[in-house]
Amino acid sequence: MEFIVISALNGLVYGLLLFMVSAGLTLIFGMMGIVNFAHASFYMLGAYLSFTIARISNFWLALLIAPLIVMAAGMFIERFMLRRVHGFGHSQQLLLTFGIAFVFEELVKLFWGNFPVAYRPPPLLSGPAFSLFGTNFPSYRVFVAAVAIVLLGLLYLLLQKTRIGIIVRASVQRPGMVSALGHNVPLVFLGVFGVGAWMAGLAGAVGGALLTTSPTMSGEMSVIAFVVVVVGGLGSLLGAFIASLLIGLLTSFSVGFQVSLADVAQLFGYGEQARQIGGLLTLEISSMSASLPALLMLVVLLTRPAGLMGDRN
Amino acid sequence: MTKDIIQLTDLRKRFGESEIIRGVDLGVKRGERHALIGPNGAGKSTLFHLISGLYKPSSGDIRLNGDSIAGLAPHLITRRGLSRSFQITTIFPRLSVYENLRIAAMARHGRRYALFSLASKATVINRDTDELLELVRLTQARDKFAGDLTYSEQRALEIGMAIGPGADVILLDEPMAGMSREETHYMLNLIRDITQGKTLLVVEHDMEVVFSLCDRISVLVYGEVIASGTPEEIRSNGRVQEAYLGEVPA
Amino acid sequence: EPLKIAVIEAFSGPNAQTAIPFVEGVRYAIGKLNKEGGFNGEPIVVTEYDSLNQTAGAAEKLKAAIADGARIIIQSTNSAITAQISEDVRKYNLRNKGKEILFMMEGSEAAEFTAEKCQFWAFKTASNPFIRIKALVSAMKDTGKLGSKVYSINQNYSYGVDHEKAQALYAKEAGAQIVGSTLHDTAKIQDFSPYVAQIKASGADTILSGNWGNDIILFMRALGDAGLKVNVGNTSLDTTGALSAMGPSALGAVLVKLYNLEAGGKAGETFAEDFKAVIGHYPYNEEPTTAFGTLLLGEALKKVSQPGGKVDIKAVALALENVSYDSPAGRWSFRKEDHQLLLPVAVSEVSKEARYKVDGTDMGFKLLKIVSPEDSAVPVDPKCKMDRPS
Amino acid sequence: MMRIGLLASIVALLLGAPLVLSGHVVGVLTTALIAVLFAMAFNLLSGRAGMLSFGHAAYFAIGGFAVIHAMQAVEKGLLWLPTPLLPLVGGVAGLIGGLCAGYFATLRSGVYFSMVTLALAELLHAIAPNLGSIFGGEVGLTTMRMPWTSFDYGNEVHVYYTVVAWVVLCIGLLYAYNQTLFGRLTVGVREAERRVSFLGYNLHHTKIIVFGVSAMFSGIAGGLLAFTTESINYSILGMGMSASVVLHTFVGGSGVFFGPAVGAFVFALFGSLVSDMTKNWLLYQGILFVGIMMFMGDGLAMLWLRIVNEFKERNWSALKLRALLLPPGLLVAAGVVTLLELTSRILDQQYAAIVSRTKAWPPVSLYGFNWNPTALATWLVPILAIGAGAGLVFLAISRAGREAAPRAALAGEHAR
Amino acid sequence: MTLLSVTNLHSHYGKSHILHGMSFSLAAGEMIALLGRNGSGRSTAMKAIMGLVAPTRGSIKLDTKELAGLPSYKINRAGIAYVPEERLAFSNLTVEENLHIGVAAPRPNAKAWSLEEMYGFFPRLKERRNVKAGSISGGEQQMLTLCRSLLGQPSVILIDEPTEGLAPKIVDHLADVMRDINRQGVASILVEQKMTIALKLCSRCLIMGHGAIVFEGTPEELIATPSVRREWLEVA
Ligand SMILES: Nc1ncnc2c1ncn2[C@@H]1O[C@H](COP(=O)(O)OP(=O)(O)OP(=O)(O)O)[C@@H](O)[C@H]1O
Ligand SMILES: Nc1ncnc2c1ncn2[C@@H]1O[C@H](COP(=O)(O)OP(=O)(O)OP(=O)(O)O)[C@@H](O)[C@H]1O
Ligand SMILES: [Mg+2]
Ligand SMILES: [Mg+2]
User: What sections of the protein cross the membrane (chain A) (predicted)?
Assistant: First the structure.
């Protein structure tokens, strides 16, 4: 019981953080059609910047400024880099962001060093929020969850109450035609990309203090954010939300399942033989928990390619 | 035996809530040129998609030469001798016109996994390709990228691709769309030539073309065939006039 | 003929930060050896090569090094690369009799190198999970930091699995009970709180872990966040940046290491200050490992050095089997049977009272105990079958 | 004709290389050639068939592991196979692995395809450490090449010639593949999948075969690597390898047959040479890649072809523009490198230690000069160089731009 | 009163020179037909006016405002709408979303078009409004794109081959709709293959040949000059 409640809470918080990272990715992916490999780099940049700003001023100011700087960086990349290669198609953009992610990682190593930095929650949020079964639940985790939920609300308003969403999706397909209908397509793209980067920056500013802030954080986050986006369905925010929580809970609970194929075989009376064969058969689910998302993605892709909430197929 | 080469029985297709094809019964005789006309959104293209295997029917049967092909994958249907063109041109834009047609001609000879035969040595296929080129009058544009052709040339190529696999039954979806009068004229002759001895099912809005090309016409309105007959019968059919033709052109 | 030594290390890529302290230790030691006269009357020449952190890259750089005339190779980080170089050296020596080269593995902890992969031409100046955990558990027991219920959490690959085995073995020897054990993906877990919940549920009062890198940092933070009060024993709490990233949640955790700056009293202080004067900072990370390892090599070199002589690697290797070096904490020497280093092991605690503060924090590693070479040694692995040159 | 001459001279150069080059450089060449083959194999899938795989390291690695196991078997006498034929085992394993994985991956297309390949590779990477008997655990698997006739294979050069032979043979086969009927069909798959199936081809089977062939040649490349290093380790399954083949292929240009080879060769040499000069080489490699993607998106090989074409057409104005762009481009590059190198030296831990000890900022040395980090000029010089270079580039382009014809905005936007 | 005037317009696709100094004008509320053979450059002329193909030389004036060289969205906001021959519906959006994208604020002293009116013109669109535009029929797409452009409240609308692919009955209906739109004060340029429709709807006919205007006159004049028809419209 205790394990279930605590794991559920942890899973939810982790899931919400994943949502913050992947929301921007799915927005850019779904609306602009750009597979943005640099998205997790924005996340990393947000963490490092807010770490630095928090050090010279305070955490709250960092939370405000760092995502804005990341947004500016994102807009620069869109305006002067991605747009240049727009004519060559999406794969060119994908490759470019791939390279940019690479450069970001190296730059972070250059400026901040190739090791984790001490980015930790501010004193105000350092204590426990409440205590369950004798385990503390940190207030910073509650804060992370709250930020993610506010962000979800804002995004929902932006997309439901404005035409931005449909304009961008139309522009991806036929920018010329949308322009001929009176919309400044480049500006819209710039804005959407900026917002996506801002969200990743915010996620980094918040998440960097929850997890670690290190040069490897982008690589680690990158794959998992793609999993969220694919599982949720390309471009579906709701899908990304559900998938994030799903993956959060999945990784959280799988830790408790020290079950292997051999144990399954045991049920049929073949446990010993299976254990003798070893290898995959004795591999416990709990020790694969970080790979479960990839497995989930594979299963979803092969059975329900449009994802949970996607609208294709 | 003059049994119908294509036989649709109580064919239905629904997308979510709406049923687009509502119980179509239609027979196309071997060797005839058959037109399918009807208002926009009547389901003509959908019917083509069903016959050619792009969509699976919700219910009902489709028979080609007496065998059911309902729900078969497109390539299997093509191999059984039915091929089609698309309303929206579907060619290989960054390949030359010649390469485009050669891929189509390869299919005719069943060279589907020809991993060990050099393209330049495939004389029969190359000859067929040249013939196809001539047939669709693209010999001049042989080495141009297909994507660089003019619209009407692309349409001609599209038709070339449809006849390339050498099927007996050809489905053409609005082959004349976007053509000028003289091109239409040319295209008309072209279609006549290439469907010599074959069966043609064509969707077309240009009534002049339909009336001069086809032996029989079926009229599809909101997913149902309301009439089927010779051009004269259709022209004078009151329901068809009301639903589709409007006042008969002078 | 001057002796050429090649340092092949991951100067770029994700392991670069881990590699730097090792390299600094080598630089320091070679500087010292050269001040004491070098080899054969000439200074020892050291060239550094970037392994690109890939086995293939390392193999290529090894060839470059050999082409440049290197006779001794030193390498520390990344066991996969160590394995690559070790094998390459073995094959090279087989194919080039008389021009042998010597390989100093000065940091790779994997036990295989003195077991199935052991060979005459490679010497390992590092411990292994068994040595470390043996020392750790005994020191924790002696200082009252070993509870009765132990949870073991490790990374799911050969190194982590060895740790798990060692933890089970020595915890049992010390009379504690293993109440749970987990192997998890390496360097992929973002949030360790589920594991902490699992540990809490098991009722453990002590955690033993061989995790390194982010895996230990994140784990310690999750532990601190949950407010779980347990003893922790680990091998990598001192990675650059780790203490500052973990913050106060690291306090009280126990580290087992090849050396601690507080060891050895006066001699230890001299070493620390000397190192700082040469390299620029105190050697609180892995620097001592390579410094002492290389100085141990230096002892062997001194044995065979004769001004104007040729470089005879076989003689160096044979000498290495018999020499020893006295570090401030105790004697370092090789065991002939498997070329495993026998060394004193330092067990310390993360504390604000530590003499040397780390990472700009107010914390450091306070020495708890030095476990003597005799007590830390583990038996020779029967899988080690060493072909000795006749 | 000129092309054949060029190819012949390249092959001749490759054959002659060991006569003049040191053993180490021969080793570098060997790895570069393997990267070349891998990139070419990858491009069969990504460039020709339009299926961008993000997990191609898997097939490369499968080939490698298979060859190591085969070599071990040969060493133990369980298998008889002449040493130079060993990489073939990698091809077979790659083919089998590729057909199996391809069956699933090619069920999807576009980004979804990429994601399936990514997921498959990630899973294999995650599982590999647990299968010690197959993948050898952390320290990997090792073996030794057995002598064959007069080749004792202890010598770098013997290995090199074997690799050259395999690479040349495989590239020849890849070229031949493109000339076959099936090779032509492959391109059709990239251009319009739907049409392919409506022509009567089984799209899924076609794609599986392409995937398999690509994986087979990747497997040979992996096998060659295992053959050269006589060892293999599961880290080769990681994202890094999959990523680098993507970089290589697109730097070189996926639209030209030899493009990937150019990219792989250039980057492999870049890695070997620059890594010895600066620890920031990965950063420069990244910047180089980004630059190429931005300014010559279809790759180095295409750029080369274009220049050749301009020469043939005597298009002096275009050539003049390129020549005009070169010096300012180099100026910018020099400025950027200087700036980054200076920054990296100053942010280095050792330097920071010196600063905190001596409370002074000692000069750093770069290109044999001493740069004083507190002097304005130190920073101004590279910044000015970048500014001036960029300005000149901009000037040259806008000059030329006014003459060039504008692009159609709706081009390629036709109804899909 | 001249609303739109095009003078000496040149345009290229890459190296090929398509428009060779085209000039014409359009009066307020007028409807003209632009005729010519396939490939004579009529579509290109429309795209050039719309800024979708950059005019290399020449001027395009709406009232007094120079449009040449402006980006398309500014040209649209100035009051020109365009219905492309390729239709270019946004296939991944629903019919209604397609229409929403076109909506702009009404122009002062001009008729304001509303969504309801569009559905009134083409009830079929209303039925299909929640379907993805990619899956509606070709003819429906044609209706959709016309309405989408009209919702931008243009003062000039450029319509490229609107009857292509439409059922005869709808063609008649569409003709009525276009006439209706014109009567409400929207000046139109119509590119049309179906001569009957063009002649019926328009007050003036322009014929393009070799990228320039080669004939200009009323439908009656055109009918009366078979030589022009033969030379520029049909194959001899
Ligand atoms: N995938 C789909 N999902 C939902 N509705 C669809 C789908 N495909 C077609 N429809 C609907 O089915 C109807 C028939 O479409 P179809 O394309 O078959 O018409 P058509 O007869 O070819 O018309 P046209 O002559 O205009 O091309 C249309 O109203 C269209 O909206
Ligand atoms: N994107 C393009 N790239 C290159 N040439 C083009 C392009 N689009 C059109 N052309 C060429 O420009 C010329 C004029 O084309 P345009 O589409 O304007 O003619 P049109 O009069 O509208 O004919 P159609 O009846 O085919 O619509 C044609 O020769 C065509 O081949
Ligand atoms: Mg249709
Ligand atoms: Mg046109």
Answer: 12-39, 59-82, 94-119, 139-159, 187-211, 223-256, 277-303
